[in-house]
Amino acid sequence: DIQMTQSPSSLSASIGDRVTITCRASQSITSYLNWYQQKPGKAPKLIIYAASSLQSGVPSRFSGSGSGTDFTLTISSLQPEDFATYYCQQTYSTPTFGQGTRLEIK
Amino acid sequence: QVQLVQSGSELKKAGASVNVSCRASGYTFSSYAVNWVRQAPGQGLEWMGWINTYTGNPTYAQGFTGRFVFSLDTSVTTAYLQINSLKPEDTAVYYCARDVIAPTDTWFDPWGQGTLVTVSS
């Protein structure tokens, strides 16, 4: 299976900060990379697909980039509703998820 | 709107079986596969496998063969996850998620709200 490694595992930030989360695949996955946001007690929600495409209805402060093995999720200006756990997922082969990045309020 | 609605929480004893349902609405059920994902308490997301809603053929991830069964009832656009011989370590939230396939990617959207299965010893 392809291993997905996210960093950092947790992150403290303030409202208005620019935040970047990285995700590295153990082999090339071209652009088969998705990002999900999960709030406590809720189901994951798709925010970015195909590495850089913004899901409909998701605020434009979210963006994704990368291809091959290295990917990033950027939130340009943190809002209160963005504090959550974020997961990357590869679907190039048998789907696997990163371990998650917990984004907390500083 | 496109929606997946799952059945409610379950409390079971070890050795019993449980059936989790996932009812789809707002789209053509047979055109999109359904995935199942497990999330143990305080842990990350683990893909369990998927079921082809056109053929009914299931595919199980490693670690989810034997006791786990995916099935369908297309007449009510519902997918099912059955877990047999439950163990305390099966305690988790189980999600269904629609599989969306595009030329350069595949993603899961939307997800069901999750079903908590608690297994007591």
List the helices and strands and how they pair.
The complex is a heterodimer of chains A (106) and B (121).
Chain A: E1 4-7, E2 10-13, E3 19-25, E4 33-38, E5 45-49, E6 53-54, E7 62-67, E8 70-75, E9 85-90, E10 96-97, E11 101-105
Parallel strand pairs in A: 2-11
Antiparallel strand pairs in A: 1-3, 3-8, 4-5, 4-9, 5-6, 7-8, 9-10, 9-11
Chain B: E1 3-6, E2 10-13, E3 18-25, E4 34-39, E5 46-51, E6 58-60, E7 68-73, E8 78-83, E9 92-102, E10 105-111, E11 115-120
Parallel strand pairs in B: 2-11
Antiparallel strand pairs in B: 1-3, 3-8, 4-5, 4-9, 5-6, 7-8, 9-10, 9-11
Q: What do these coordinates show?
A:
In chain A, a hairpin with a 3-residue loop joins strand 5 and strand 6. Chain A contains no helices and 11 strands. Chain A starts with a strand and ends with a strand. By secondary structure, chain A is mostly beta strands. Helix content of chain A is 0%, strand content 50%. In chain A, strands 2, 4, 5, 6, 9, 10 and 11 form a 7-stranded mixed beta sheet that branches. The model of chain A has no long low-confidence stretch (mean pLDDT 97). Chain B is mostly beta strands. Chain B is built from no helices and 11 strands. Chain B has strands at residues 3-6, 10-13, 18-25, 34-39, 46-51, 58-60, 68-73, 78-83, 92-102, 105-111, 115-120. In chain B, strands 2, 4, 5, 6, 9, 10 and 11 form a 7-stranded mixed beta sheet that branches. A 4-stranded antiparallel beta sheet of chain B has the order 1-3-8-7, with no helix packed on it. In chain B, a hairpin with a 6-residue loop joins strand 5 and strand 6. Chain B is globular. The chains are: A mainly beta (106), B mainly beta (121). The interface between A and B is medium-sized, with 27 and 22 residues.
